[in-house]
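Same chain as my last thread, 296 residues:
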Amino acid sequence: MTNPDLVTITSGDLTARINPLGAELWSLTDRRGREYMTDADPAFWTGHAPVLFPIVGCVNGNRYRYEGAEYELSKHGFARHSTFEVVDAQDDRATFRLTDSDATRAHYPFAFVLELHFRLEAACLHVEASVANPGEAALPFSFGFHPAFAWPLPGGAAKADHVVAFEQPEPQPIRRIEPASGLVLPEPFATPVEGHLLSPDASLFEADALIWDHLASRSVTFGTPGAGQLAIAFPDSPMLGIWQKPGAAYLCIEPWQGIADPLGFCGDLRDKPGIISLAPGEARGFRMDVAVLAAD
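reply #2:
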């Protein structure tokens, strides 16, 4: 990593590097220097692990309505393009904060405090997002993680041997995106999960992400049994997206609270799928743990 602005934390077993621009995890390496995050090849996608706030996905026409007024808001919201304040940085942990400003209120007229807490403990990265409402009105929002993990992972296994193993069987249909608009199609699609196993393949993502809007699991493992694997837990997120640009050397496993607008949606922001309404003075947390599992 050559970016001088990255904040580095380490447990000895793992080292994480986080960019204050977006509070975005750019790198996660083990003590041998092996990288578990995307190579960010610009031929595919330069993201690493953007934070999705105050929406997940697109709103119809990049515009939404709230109490009769209309606002413009781009895909996944503005947090990923905002510079967070580094409010704490220690050897093994760091905290980043974003608050509302004139710039955010032009697109999202709400008071908020968004914090991202990163902590390394042995071979596990703990990430906790906290959304607080310091205002006098309800705060409607969605939140999502968007980490892009190396595919193949370190460990020597072939890309084709990697699987996503869900905590629970996931027989329910999934949702897909209408490519032109980025909105969720109304019809359900048959799940590619067999039992609790998904064998990712580039062809699955030619029509954009796989979306589980009624997810039974709150954790998955990704990788190849006996070789490189990650255990990813997301106890507070009821939805999941899995995505890549076909052919890229990453797989995004994305715990979400919220999804894109349904195709043709013209309702109020508060009626968007997955929106949470946070009362004044309240806060809501979303955790994601990423553990590197030792090879057999």
